[in-house]
From TrEMBL:
Residues binding substrate, per UniProt: 63-65, 117-118
InterPro entries: Menaquinone_biosynth, MqnD
Protein name: 1,4-dihydroxy-6-naphtoate synthase
Its job: Catalyzes the conversion of cyclic dehypoxanthine futalosine (cyclic DHFL) into 1,4-dihydroxy-6-naphthoate, a step in the biosynthesis of menaquinone (MK, vitamin K2).
Single Gene Ontology BP annotation: menaquinone biosynthetic process
SUPFAM superfamilies documented for this protein: Periplasmic binding protein-like II (SSF53850)
Gene (UniProt): mqnD
GO molecular function: carbon-carbon lyase activity
Length: 288
């Protein structure tokens, strides 16, 4: 294959405005580390919007849900850094009143997008057979609280804020995944266009690690950038968000992370009725 990356090329970049992403990428966004060709003006959007752009191949480097990745592995490699993967960080199923899971079998469930990993987990659970009401993630809690939906699939900071809406947790889907499989939960990852080649992927992976390391050393300097994209989120919720979703896997998924990713991608492919391409998942192919 002929690689298309040129050393002076600017690479388009997409990630979400959620605190874990803006924390990880703050060093790049603020120009505090070598960007290795990444644009200083990234595209920030809800993860489902990023999933759709990735399926179209719109961005060179982007955050994406693992559930969406099965549809675009022919175009993108996985990077080893920058993702969201861990324990105790999964989506929640919530309702207006305390209830058992079986009470929601025919419930209308608000979801933050069909390509999200959260929705994959709900499908794997197989307990909710009612309609799915697709909306942006920040609309899920208000929809359940207002009665527009019977239940909601909560991601991001909703994990911490759902009690503010008077809602009740029915099931922690992340805990369910961990107990069922024994693996940590892969939520989202950073991918790079395969056609750019391994040298571009190496440079970008290293840039993300530099950015994360810078943010950890300079949290006060990174804070205005993180806070500026967090909308109305309270400072304590921002901090809890970062503590929950940024961990050692964010720097390098490592062997355990690779195992978890392969397990989840297999489940996602089976659920979608597609086959994973016979290509390396990661740019450096060390797992092959």
């Amino acid at each position: 294959m002929e690689w298309t990356f040129a050393m002076n090329q600017e690479l388009s970049l997409g990630y979400s405005p959620c605190p874990n992403d803006t924390f990880i990428f703050s060093g790049i966004a603020l120009g505090r580390v070598d960007r290795s060709g990444l644009t200083p003006e990234p595209f920030l959007a809800d993860v489902e919007a990023l999933n759709k752009k990735a399926r179209r191949g719109d961005l060179d480097v982007t955050k994406i849900s693992f559930n969406a990745l099965v549809h675009c592995l022919d175009q993108y490699w996985l990077l080893r850094s920058g993702g969201a993967l861990g324990r105790g960080c999964g989506p929640l199923l919530v309702a207006r009143k305390p209830c058992a899971l079986e009470d929601l079998r025919n419930a209308a469930v608000a979801i933050p997008g069909r390509m999200t990993t959260a929705h994959l987990l709900l499908e794997l659970l197989g307990a909710c057979e009612g309609p799915r009401l697709e909306m942006s993630f920040e609309q899920v809690l208000p929809a359940v609280a207002s009665g527009a939906a019977d239940a909601g699939l909560v991601i991001h900071e909703g994990r911490f804020t759902y009690p503010n809406y008077g809602l009740h947790r029915v099931l922690d889907l992340g805990a369910w995944w961990e107990e069922t499989t024994g693996w940590p939960l892969p939520l989202g990852c950073i991918v790079i266009r395969r056609s750019l080649g391994p040298e571009a992927a190496r440079r970008v992976d290293e840039a993300i690690v530099r950015s994360l390391d810078w943010a950890r050393r300079h949290q006060a300097e990174a804070w205005p950038y993180i806070r500026g994209h967090a909308q109305e989120m309270e400072p304590e919720v921002i901090r809890r968000h970062i503590e929950t979703f940024v961990n050692d896997f964010s720097r390098d998924v490592g062997p355990e992370g690779e195992g978890a990713i392969r397990r989840l991608l297999g489940e996602a492919a089976r659920t979608a009725g597609v086959q994973l391409p016979n290509q390396p998942l990661f740019w450096d192919s060390r797992e092959e």
